[in-house]
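Hey team,

Sharing the histidine kinase run so nobody has to redo it. Sequence (482 residues) first:
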Amino acid sequence: MIKKGIRRQIVLHYFIVVFSALLLAEVIFLLAIRTYYYDSIYSHIKNHIDNVEDYYYQRINPGLDGNRDLASMLTYYDLNSANVQILDTQGNVLINSSEFQPDMSVKTADISQALSGNVGRWVGRQASTGENVMAVSKLEQSSGQDGYIVRYVTSLETVNDKLFNLTMLATGVGAAVLAIVLVFSMGLANSIVQPLNTITAVSAEMARGKFNQRIKGDYKYELGELASTLNYMAQEIVRSNQVKDDFISSISHELRTPLTSIKGWSETINSGGYDPEETRIGMEIITKETERLIGLVEEILDFSKLQQNEMKIAIGRVDIKELLQEIMLNLWTKAESRQIELRLKSEDRPLVAGDANRLKQVFLNLVDNAIKFSHEHSAIDLVVYFEGDNVVTEVRDTGIGISEDHLVKVRDRFFQVDPLNGGTGLGLAISQQLVELHKGILLIQSTLGEGTTIVVSLPRLPENTAQTDGAPELPPADEKLS
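Structure output:
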């Protein structure tokens, strides 16, 4: 007995379908053969009656006179392998070609059919002998006579024996076909179940945290896709875990450095001496490192909110040109320290509907990254232009660029192109999601060694809205965009 499972279901379904089809086909076949044999016997007797009628009544046309004429009629109607009877219209046997003479009148269906003018037919078991027979009867009328019923009775035992043999042969063929189907269905079931068992076993190992396990085997179709998907999932989990470990290591370093500075200067100040200049420098460093810690924590909190769809943005009218000018002022000192020139080229009044603080966070991160990865004595271009119903902003640098391998991962959370430069690896991931919250698109184009261009496309406010003095009709503040 096959235990419950997919294998059993496949075998059972195939078996039931083929068995039902075979049973229906064999029943139809055997009924057709039986009908063919019985109709052949009936047609043979009926044709014999028609031929005798043509000869006996049209050419001889005797006047029946007692038993001598009945005997003559019986002789003409005689047929090999069939018993011929001459009956009156009451069903009484007047003369019989066999030695056996029935004592009672015949009341079978063929008699009533013959009396109604048809060639009657009846198949059944003969009461006196218990034998399966077919009776064919027809009413024959002579001029001036009441008429007689000519009845043929032939045994069906030989035909039934042949039909039984055909039935047994068909049953044997059906059993052989079912056996072959059973073998093939079990093979098919095994070809599906065995890979599934392998996949299940490896998946169980993955569930226990063994993500180095892989599903081996060249599986086809859906099973192959399932195996590839699970292998890819394990690979991505391993990569995510590695990225997470790198992030923990990086963030630990990022937190430790400012905390060490804060602790060192705090101890220095507390140690006494109170040199005004030294104290001032120490307090500035403590303030700077504290702000750096706050920035790191806020970046992590922002990412957490975005991941949980809890980030809310206050919608208003934002002039991208003014926003970029403010960012250039904020980053001017950092760019000047590396002799990097910030250049802005913009259309007039590039207005979008958005959260000014969040959009400033996006572009501040993009320009800061451009400065961080640009060569000294280079330039960064900020270009703003209209494209259809969108305001497009490009941040172009001629820095180190990004390789093709890193380009597909650079927007992943915690990923850092150069871990030595510091940071959490969340800035670009957060920028991507903030742009999407504003119904915009962020694209990255880069060539290693030649520079990077980041394109941000945001929906532009309608022209009539942009030219009005009042506020545009925008969603209410703090509404979360999705």
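The CA atoms of residues 410 and 431 lie 12 Å apart.

Ping me if you want the raw files.
A.
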